[in-house]
Amino acid sequence: MIADADQSKEAVTAALARFFQNLVLIVSLAIMTCGGSPCSPWPRRRSWCSASGSCSNGSRRTREWAGARRITATVTERLAAIKLIRAYGAEDLESERFAEQEADRYRKRVIRTQRFASLSSPASEVFGGLVIILIIWAAANPAVSGVVLGPEVTIVFLGVALKMMSPIKSISQFPSAMAVALGSAERVFRWLDLPAVERTEPGELEARFEREIVFDRVSFAFPEGDPVLEDLSFTIPRGQVVALVGPSGAGKTTLTELLPRFHEPTGGQILLDGVPLSRLSRRSLRDAIGWVSQDTVVLNDTVFANIAYARPEAGREQVVAAARAANALDFIERLPAGFDTLLGERGTRLSGGQRQRVAIARALLRDPPILILDEATSALDPESERLVQEAIDRVMENRTVLVVAHRLSTVRHADQILVLDDARIVERGTHAELHAANGRYRRLHDLQFQIPETVS
Predict the structure, then answer these.
(1) Shortest CA distance to 175 belongs to which of 116, 217, 126?
(2) Helix spans in 100-199 (H)
(3) Rounded to an integer, what is the distance from CA 357 to the centroid of its chain?
(4) What is the pTM of this model?
(5) CA quadruple 293, 345, 198, 229: dihedral positive or negative?
(6) Model confidence over 410-421: pLDDT tens digits?
(7) What is the radius of gyration, based on Cα positions, of the chain?
(8) Which run of H or E residues covers position 222?
């Protein structure tokens, strides 16, 4: 995207300015030369032929840029999967696939394109030399050429021919540059012309949460895709914990993303204290929601800045208190510079459990009335899970919580458990009720714990 924007900027500013500058120079020299002397039209014809030849190669350069982007995407993907490739010994396979599918075709396109591009300058030089030779020949053989050129006119023609060689060469390369720039501009405007996903509508209300959140016959499907959620209805009273469980792909995470309006329902509506979310401003709604997800985002900044991201105006004492409540203070104080330690890209200096506790501290600092926990304890070792779960229990106090969990041990004490499968709610109730019902929740529970549980 940045490269495309730079290409477009270059064409609109420098390249276009050079084109008109050289065009005016050529026209001025031609008018000055032809003012009182016979003038051959050959240079003008040849220059436009050369330009059109370069223009025909513009589409090749556009394809070359597309190939370069594919190469970049492939390399980025393979580098991200380097451990997977090494683990399965697929280095040779990936090298062969890369050479056959991308690198070889790209190399051939580049060579072909550069071959034509490199001929432009020599061709202009050769043509300029031929023009000079032709002028000298015409002046030396007036009887054959039919044109009488005096010494002063011959010198003028030679001077003009030499002066015009550089601008003609520059103009001949302009169509090729414009073809690449137009392709880049098309891709830039394709993104710019996309309709805004989030718009601020006039008359939007400020979000207030005092009583309950209601999902009323909510459905959702991605464009040109199968339904992800169908006809979901349930209520989350203020202060209660509602857990979403079910197999992967059942729509649990998508359901949580509807609450902060990351997506809009394709059917039904969600109400906050009786007001549809579509009538509330996104900013005020999201101010009332804290989010801790499985894929914790840690910025390449200090520990303090990462925690204070939720409230930039927060003081150091508030940040320290949030870190202490999230069981993060101990490991933060052991870092080289404490709260001022840079965490690296995506928090590479921290373990998974430490990153999660930083995210929980961030949510605690924001102190929202609504909290969304999306697989917050997944992929952690037992000790890290214990510390994270303690922090989660602390952050859930006196809050309305929507939690997604695969580990059913973390949601046993939820006020309501919703079992999702095939885009619908298939069971609902407390842990004891669902376990006694001997349905899908019971099967999921028994698969995880391997032994039946006695429910008192």
Answers:
(1) 116
(2) 104-140, 142-145, 151-192
(3) 26
(4) 0.65
(5) negative
(6) 788 889 999 999
(7) 35
(8) none
